[in-house]
Amino acid sequence: MIAAENSETQRYNKRMTLFNSAYTAFAAWYARTHRPRRSGDHFRF
Fold first, then answer.
1. What distance in Å separates the CA atoms of residue 4 and residue 25, rounded to the nearest whole number?
2. What are phi and psi of 24, to 5 degrees?
3. Are 3 and 15 in contact (CB under 8 A)?
4. What is the pLDDT of residue 9?
């Protein structure tokens, strides 16, 4: 936001693009590795 306030739009857009791509990659990784268990995968006591 500091870059946007200083009228450095190219720098701001570049950083926002980097953040969005990193956040998307993290969200995809989290969704892959933290899937809920299926009902038949564990014992029932």
1. 25
2. -65, -40
3. yes
4. 84
Half-sphere exposure of residue 13: CA atoms within 13 angstroms, side-chain side: 4
- pTM confidence score: 0.62
- Note the pLDDT of residue 16: 92
Contacts of 9 (CB under 8 A, 6+ apart): 3
Mean pLDDT by 10 residues, the chain (45 residues): 74 91 96 78 61
Q: Which two tokens stand for residue 5?
A: 């306030």
Token output for 28 = 């995809």
Encoded tokens for 35: 């899937």
